[in-house]
Amino acid sequence: MMWLLLCVWTVATLILSNTGYVRCDTNGGHTCMACTIILSLAEQNAEIHNETVVHGLERLCNVLPVLYREPCQGFLSVATPVLQRILFEDVFTPDVGCHALGFCYTEAGTAECNLHPRPRHGIRGAIKRAYPDPMTWNIHQQKVANFQSGVCDLLPGLKGFCQLIEQKLETHLPVVDVDGDRFSTIQTLRGTNFRGRDCSDARDDIYPGRRPIDGDRIQDSNCNGIYGTDKISGKSYEELFCSDVPNYGVVVLGDSAAAHFHLPKEWFSAVGMTLSSFEAAPMIIANEIDLPQLSAVTGYKNSSLVRPWWTDSVYLRLRETNRCNHRDYQNIGVNGAESASMNNTIQYTMARNRTTDNPLLVFYSLIGNDVCNGHVDTIHGMTLPEDMKRRFTSTLEYLDTKLPKGSHVVATGLADGRILYNTLKDKIHPLGDWRQDLTYPEVYSFLNCLQVSPCAGWMTTNGTLRNFTSERAANLSLAVKQVTKSFRAKNFDVHYIDYDIKKIQNQWVADGGKASDLIEPVDGFHPSQVSNFLFASYFWKEANRLFPGAFPRNPHNADIERIFGDQGGY
After folding, report:
1. Which of these, 119, 98, 124, lies nearest to 33 by C-alpha position?
2. With contact defined as beta carbons under 8 Å apart, do 186 and 283 qualify?
3. What pLDDT does residue 18 have?
């Protein structure tokens, strides 16, 4: 368990730090956070099963996939002496345990961070009681440090993966892409979960979204599963079925919300954890902890990962309207993306040829990171309206060099993140499920102390700061809206829509849902699967309002399904 979550947060931190999302942390940062989570779960497991914390930690190791059990048990062998000493002196809390192990510490000039109530004599005092001889404590700490010096080195088979991720992080392109056309044949590592599946990884002129080569009489060149010739008319099926209505692909240029960042609740609740909880861990890690295949813009499948909810998306609506659009989607959502990183690097990873490909429906959706960071001085790190205008204008100028004529761009505003605290302030975090004792504000405060919060401006008990952050977000939304009104492109039209999650939430509650259903339960920050499902409908309705008649129903859909079935799937 320790090593799995440390791996998750190591990869997450690596991903986020390369996008500007995490610029610094303190007092152990993400490693301290991961350790505290694990020991919290171990302690609760011990209570549930009437055993020691060490046995509770061992129980967590045993629910991991086989690949991770051995290094987890190896860690136990070096951590057990430290934990047993603290337990013997009756001074254990998860915070004390992680400080004693060396994952957490207090840097000079910073406050001591704790998730749980402090011991009577403080964390440092508790450790001194367990280790009156500092030399013994240092020796034990060094053994732990030697064992955990590199998570990627310790997990079998993970070192190469981590090195590959490091090499590819700044490109945000598929790791497996032999022909270099920016489409892949595997699901993870920025593959088909993010972009439509390539039907030939040996030819760079065959990929989703292109106009067919010679009507695709011989080979499927645009990967929509429609090819061959009708024997009666002599026409290609592409000509028969796909030439009467315009064909469109869909792209989202966005952040972690667009990519659908998701950590399973079962990983963080001692009550809900089972042997099957971690079966999807390799896929989740290889997907950068995102679920783009279930997202509001590019989702294409249902999944038990987010049961009991379903997937709806703009892509599925486009495909339902015209099955010739099959597989033509790209999720260019990047964890931590904001207007600067989008303009500097991320936008260039979109695949489209202005002369050979079909037009696109593009969503530009950066809903928070221009006001969100984990800094103590979070206001200083927020984007200014004039910078937002300049960067968004530059992105539109680039898109005008890439998008085929007849494309459309929809830009969303930022969210009003006050919905997070207002919705969750009295709720119990999954880490507190067993005892019903850990609230979201307590988790927010812990993350802020470590400077690892996704959004110190909204995930805080400081109401004045929350209001300021929302005011800045509204100003940035206005800047985006003003650019959409003034910008004139040669190849597309551009419009603005609000990212009105509060309106969506109100409607959901009116229909009988719970307000908290719309927020990811683990991080208390990202839109949930329910949100993605509801926003898909909102985005689609807005696109049809803004571009009336652009997406007519293909009268040949039934013929396509009759002849080509699922068109090769995904």
Report:
1. 98
2. no
3. 41
